[in-house]
Amino acid sequence: MKLGYILLSAVFFVSVGSVLGQMPSMSAPRGYVIGPGDVLSIKALGEKDFDADGITVEGDGKITLPWVDKQVVASCKTEHELQTEVVKLWSQFLKNPQVNVRVTDRKSRAPVSVTGEVAKQAQFDLTRPTSLLEVLSAAGGTTSKSSGMVAVVRTRPPLCASPEAIEDWQKESEGLGVSTRIYSLSAVAHGNKESNPEILPGDIINVPEAARVWVTGEVKLAGPVYLPPVGLPLTQAIAMANGNTDQAKVKEIKIYRHKQGSTEPEVLVANLVAIKAGTAKDIMLQPYDIVEVGKANKSFGQILQEALIALPNRVPIPIP
To answer: Which of 84, 148, 153, 202 has CA atoms 20 to 30 A from the CA of 34?
Structure first.
């Protein structure tokens, strides 16, 4: 089974590379777009009276400039776009002003958080349009315990988005200020563009742990087994438990399954010998199934053999 996980991971990352090579850019880059909280430095060459360092963009996206009697909208503009506007404003006082606008501290972008079943849970600062796949790759990819799904939690409306996009987000968040979308990693790996959205500052990406089944009884390593995205047949679950013991009742393995609307579980019985022989169908396990491998009853010959071995100065007698 471990080999199966390795192969699945390999397919995922090969597909990741293929998708990245084919994926169109999220949007034409304009450069860094200024937002509330950013700190700016705005200067006019050779004009000390017009220098303005440490200007913080206010919550409404506006700034106050020297010699300008009204506030200027800086939010949603690039450095170059704001520079063009400042040149126009200061041209009332200066002849051909040489203006420089620079963002000295980028504070308008909350980091993206990646949690759950990834190789590296971390936060990332986005400086350009970035897809879900790229963020997951930066986190080292998913682990073998991944459910194969990923949740993208959007904690704020898109910065500088169109009124329509903001309205869509508000509807999706249902007035709670948080929206959540679920995506399939398999669909992402196979190039489904809708399953590989652009990730925005402040998003929380969570890769949940896969559901589990429990394998108990006469197996060599009893305990929980994770359900991979491709599903898990009974024979594979027993193999993941390092196989059954010599005393296992392999012709009557019981699977206890939750039954909707009932406190009593549904009990399925499987014949492992028949499944391996191809005369019976393997059973696909479901989340939270309990697989019980019982202990076989000893034959008279086995009991006699054990009794003879226990005698002093015993001489083993072969039992047919």
So the answer is: 153
